[in-house]
Amino acid sequence: MEFNRCMPEMSGIHHIAVTVSDLEVSTRFYECVLGMPPASSLDGPGLQRRLFALPGGTNLGLTQHTTPSMGPFTPFEPGLDHLGLAVRTIEDLQEWADHLTNLGINHPGLIEAP
């Protein structure tokens, strides 16, 4: 089956929604990492969400549901492993690595793709 023949046209990704266990802590984390506050909020039945307007038009939504989760986050269980941000040069990538280090965020450093 050729998937591109059965798929409607898409112009890009509008948003990514990430479920978090503590919206306040996660919002502060992304404010520090991204260097910007959320652009908007959405609070509705069963959830609270903070939306970051990222360069390029994609939005990042952090969502806390009122129904408790089954346990702590682990990248080894099904779900979101990580969010990859695009940069133009290896120097830009190094600036991001330095930025994360300066914020005290543990990361693997630069990893070259095979």
Account of the protein in words:
The chain is of the alpha+beta class and 114 residues long. It contains three helices and four strands. It has helices at 3-6, 23-34, 90-102, and strands at 15-19, 40-44, 47-53, 59-65. It has a four-stranded mixed sheet with strand order 1-4-3-2, covered by helices on one side. It is globular. The two termini are 29 Å apart.
In short:
By secondary structure, this protein is an alpha+beta fold. It is built from 3 helices and 4 strands; from the N terminus they run αβαβββα.
Which terms would index this structure?
single chain, 114 residues, alpha+beta, 25% helix, 21% strand
* Mean pLDDT over the residues: 84
Specify the helix fraction band. 25-40%
**pLDDT < 50 stretches:** none
Strand content: 15-25%
**Helix-strand string:** HEHEEEH
Distance between the ends: 29 Å
Oligomeric organization of the protein chains: single chain
Strand order of the largest sheet: 1-4-3-2
Q: Helix/strand/pairing class, anyone? A: alpha+beta
What's the layout of helices and strands?
Layout: H1 3-6, E1 15-19, H2 23-34, E2 40-44, E3 47-53, E4 59-65, H3 90-102
Parallel strand pairs: 1-4
Antiparallel strand pairs: 2-3, 3-4
